[in-house]
Design goal:
Elements: E1 2-9, E2 15-22, E3 29-34, H1 44-54, E4 58-63, H2 80-97, E5 103-107, H3 109-118, E6 126-130, H4 147-153, E7 155-160, E8 163-168, H5 169-175, H6 181-186, E9 190-195, H7 204-213, E10 218-222, H8 233-251, E11 269-272, E12 280-284, E13 287-291, H9 306-328, E14 336-346, E15 353-363, H10 371-378, H11 382-388
Parallel strand pairs: 3-4, 3-5, 5-6, 6-9, 9-10
Antiparallel strand pairs: 1-2, 2-4, 7-8, 11-12, 12-13, 14-15
Helix pairs in contact: 1-8, 2-3
């Protein structure tokens, strides 16, 4: 994953702080994430969901709304409408600098905001609202004791999550009667409502209203025993995994070419994907993965480069060979790990360059008095022997047929 700090101008003219996280290799989709009320882009749920999505090939821009986190501006001057406009500005920045986001994701009031923003962004094809209220004025409960003071004085200081914020009467006016049912019903993008049945802050009734109002295609994801903030990492990852599988159907950048099927009797095949650089599918039997080169070598960094794959082959063979030996000798060895790195060095006397593989074997709980024996057995691993002895490589060029 690549993570970059970026910024853009928000709806009120302030500079908004953002982070763009991209997967290794070409993104399969681009997304925009809106955080919860009075939170920031760095709240655990936002971080974990965004970073998990990159593992599915989705690039994600998350940002701090005006006056929050590291963004400039006065929170007191903002409201739900300005948050929606901040989202529009974020999407427009992403479109101008990279690719327009086909997916909007929002958490809590951010979920309500992405539903409202979707109709302003014709390129959005999928919207995921997590623990979203069906009414924008649901946030009143955060400062219900100060409502009278805000109405009377025009502004009051309230405590939100232990931090002081100023709320102006214009904020209350903006959210008053602001229901998301109509926005959900007008939505042309696919909609996923993700909600925990026992959400302690936004009841499941809100999810029901939004789901009933929306037209198909629409989906519901139960977050089971998660809390409102998705505090447990596993809950955030589960939400991200399901959203990714769902969203790529609607907001993906087309189907990637599939991996090749190795000819019968052949061990492996590698074929370019056509996505640029050296980005290629590698297939061995029924197993497939992406192989590539790093960006500095002209690749897209979408997967391990050939020498990393070779190092992995030696590491895998070593670990398996040692486990076979331990099983055969009924040795109680803990989990075995092998690390392998590759470099080239020039001999002092010969001046010739040779390849050097540095291998380190670790045994959970220690190897005890078996260190020397394990070294000996590691040297008998088939890939080790192949690398040490000269090999013959025969090449032919296939015909057009």
């Amino acid at each position: 994953m690549r993570s970059d700090k970026v910024s853009f101008e928000g709806a009120l003219g302030d500079t908004l702080a953002a982070r763009l996280e991209r997967p290794s290799g070409p993104p399969r989709a681009w997304a925009l994430f809106a955080h919860c009320f009075s939170c920031s882009k760095d709240i655990h749920a936002a971080q974990r969901i965004a970073r998990r999505l990159t593992r599915h090939g989705i690039a994600v821009l998350r940002f701090d709304f005006t006056g929050l986190g590291l963004s400039e501006g006065d929170f007191a001057n903002t409201n739900f409408s300005s948050n929606v406009e901040d989202l529009v500005r974020a999407a427009q920045w992403l479109e101008a600098e990279h690719t327009a986001p086909g997916l909007l994701i929002g958490h809590s009031l951010g979920g309500a905001a992405v539903i409202a923003a979707a109709e302003k962004l014709p390129f959005v094809r999928a919207v995921a609202a997590i623990a979203a209220p069906a009414d924008a004025d649901h946030v009143r409960h955060h400062f219900i004791d100060q409502i009278d003071a805000i109405e009377r004085e025009g502004v009051a200081e309230v405590s939100l999550a232990g931090r002081p914020f100023r709320i102006k009467k214009q904020f209350l006016d903006d959210i008053d009667g602001r229901k998301l049912d109509d926005a959900a019903s007008r939505m042309r993008a696919a909609l996923m409502i993700a909600h925990a049945p026992r959400d302690e802050l936004v009841s499941i009734d809100n999810a029901t209203r939004l789901f009933v109002a929306a037209k198909h295609p629409k989906s519901f994801l139960s977050l089971d025993d998660a809390d409102h903030l998705l505090s447990r990492e596993s809950h955030a990852h589960y939400a991200a995994d399901v959203i990714a599988a769902w969203a790529l159907r609607y907001a993906g950048a087309g189907e990637w070419p599939g991996p090749p099927r190795p000819p019968q009797g052949r061990a492996a095949s590698v074929e370019e994907t056509g996505l640029g650089g050296f980005h290629s599918w590698a297939a061995a039997g029924d197993h497939a993965f992406i192989a590539d080169e790093p960006e500095e070598a002209g690749g897209l960094d979408g997967g391990p480069h050939p020498y990393q794959i070779l190092c992995a082959a030696l590491a895998a063979c070593t670990t398996m060979t040692l486990r076979m030996y331990a099983n055969r000798k009924s040795l109680e060895l803990g989990r075995i790990r092998t690390d392998v790195s590759h470099e080239r060095e020039t001999g002092e006397e010969s001046g010739q360059t040779r390849d050097v593989f540095q291998r380190t074997v670790s045994v959970e709980g220690g190897a005890g008095d078996l260190e020397d024996k394990l070294k000996e057995i590691a040297g008998k691993c088939p890939v080790h022997r192949t690398l040490e002895r000269a090999s013959v490589i025969r090449t032919e060029i296939a015909g057009d047929d």
